[in-house]
């Protein structure tokens, strides 16, 4: 009898005219692709879209628990913190599921908390400060800076105007982000450099009680328009009609040789492994490099 998998995802809640509509709907395309792959692998797959009422989901788990859950639930766009809620429910029922658990998801959804963790662990991270309320205080780090909502992912809230080169632009962008996504707002030193996606996953052998962090081949986001800030903005990721989308292709064959600023033989690196391995089961680690080795010692 094939293993019974529940393919779990969030039902979109945003109206079609919402600026973040595209990123939320993307999960439906992912569901189609993952469903086909799993069925092709011989699994018995059932799809389940979680809505704002959790009762049907909980009833489904009680009535017929699956062997495992392929978890694509990313939280509702208007309440992104709900991503951790579903992981917690699956943990409560003791059902194995793909991706990260509550601890890692809670951390990953909070950029400010992650910054403090990196700083506390002695890992190099861009200088930063947070703004909890208006008016925005004078910038105390070198220009340019980049302004980000602390509780969003998928580049939501990131645009060309997110990079500020003076106090007036900073104040305007902080006010905009706070109005759209709430506080606190994260302000970081802008780092100009190459940008990579590095998939990491934790491999676990229960018979040996051994865990090991592994990597998949990296990819790089190219910035082909010198008139734009080199950032992977919301438009670059999701708005196919925008100039940014066409100017930021993803290159899967990354040319990084031994002795260059990033040496992939060392990845993910001892420092990252020390702080991340205890909470992480699988995620995409996105980072930017300067001319020096930034993340690894």
- Please report the first level of CATH classification, the CATH class of the largest domain: Alpha Beta
Residues in helix, %: 25-40%
Q: State the separation between the terminal residues, measured CA to CA.
A: 49 Å
CATH architecture annotation of the largest domain: 3-Layer(aba) Sandwich
Structural class: alpha+beta
Mean pLDDT: 83
What Rg is obtained from the alpha carbons, in whole angstroms?
A: 20 Å
Q: Using DSSP, what is the number of strands? A: 12
Helix/strand order, N-terminal first: EHEHEHHHEEEHEEEEHHEHE
Describe it for me?
With 297 residues, the protein is an alpha+beta fold. The chain folds into 3 domains: 4-98, Rossmann fold (3-Layer(aba) Sandwich), CATH 3.40.50.20; 123-189, Dna Ligase, domain 1, CATH 3.30.1490; 194-218 and 254-289, no CATH class. Helix content is 30%, strand content 22%. It has 9 helices and 12 strands. The protein has helices at residues 21-40, 55-63, 82-93, 102-108, 111-120, 167-181, 234-238, 243-247, 270-276, and strands at residues 4-10, 44-50, 68-71, 128-131, 145-149, 163-164, 185-189, 194-205, 210-215, 219-221, 250-251, 282-289. Strands 8, 9, 10, 11 and 12 form a 5-stranded antiparallel β-sheet that branches. Helix 3 (82-93) packs antiparallel against helix 4. The radius of gyration is 20 Å and the shape is globular. The N and C termini lie far apart (49 Å). 25% of the residues are buried.
